[in-house]
Write a structure and sequence with these properties.
With 191 residues, the protein is mostly helical. Helices cover 45% and strands 5% of the residues. Strands 1-2 form a two-stranded antiparallel ribbon. The chain is extended, with a radius of gyration of 23 Å. It starts with 35 loop residues before the first helix and ends in a 19-residue tail after the last helix.
């Protein structure tokens, strides 16, 4: 996790230990950030979306279902297994139960959250348009700025990688050709 102007200096990603069912907090496969601004806008949609009740209800269920499924087969509180969760049912279904990381289901949950946040944004701007028409562009820019600030993740480490000696040999060969070197993973060595 890289440094953020809002959340601090960050930390190195913890690699998932092999053969362990429950990986520690901060591990790459079980860390997700939903965002305060989208959650607040989704809350606005849930509280005040009376005219859009069916849409809000459907996407709220999508968000909650996949957020709960992303927690895995059990809820862990401070490293202790507490409550069984519905992911256990999915885990027993042939082919569907062969998933390696339940947290990847949060991707579908974020789709639900994004739609709810969009409905909340629409409600907010509609209300502002009726009462304070001139503030609508400012509110839009302000919310956009909050989202950018929240998710902004500048690179932590930029350094020059050593060039293998093989590249020097290739450079000396006669002919007109190009070599593309596409390294895998980050500088931390993971991936």
């Amino acid at each position: 996790v890289t440094l953020s102007p809002l959340w601090g200096p960050g930390m190195d990603i913890i690699a998932d230990p092999a053969g362990v069912k429950h990986v520690p907090i901060g591990a790459m496969e079980n860390t997700v950030y939903l965002g305060i601004t989208p959650l607040l806008l989704a809350g606005l949609a849930i509280l005040f979306g009376r005219r859009r009740r069916q849409r809000v209800l459907f996407w709220g269920i999508v968000f909650l279902l996949f957020a709960i499924m992303a927690l895995g087969p059990y809820l862990y509180v401070q490293g202790t297994r507490t409550v069984p969760l519905p992911y256990q049912i999915l885990d027993q279904i042939p082919l569907a139960g062969d998933r390696r990381a339940p947290t990847r289901m949060i991707v579908f949950g974020t789709v639900g959250l994004a739609v709810l946040a969009g409905v909340g944004f629409d409600l907010l701007t509609s209300w502002l348009r009726q009462n304070y028409r001139k503030l609508v562009p400012l509110a839009g820019l302000l919310l956009f700025g909050f989202v950018v600030l929240e998710y902004w993740n500048p690179p932590v480490q930029v350094s020059e990688l050593a060039r293998p000696a093989l590249f020097e040999q290739i450079r000396e060969e006669p002919g007109d050709f190009s070599v593309l070197h596409a390294p895998w993973g980050r500088l931390t060595g993971f991936g």
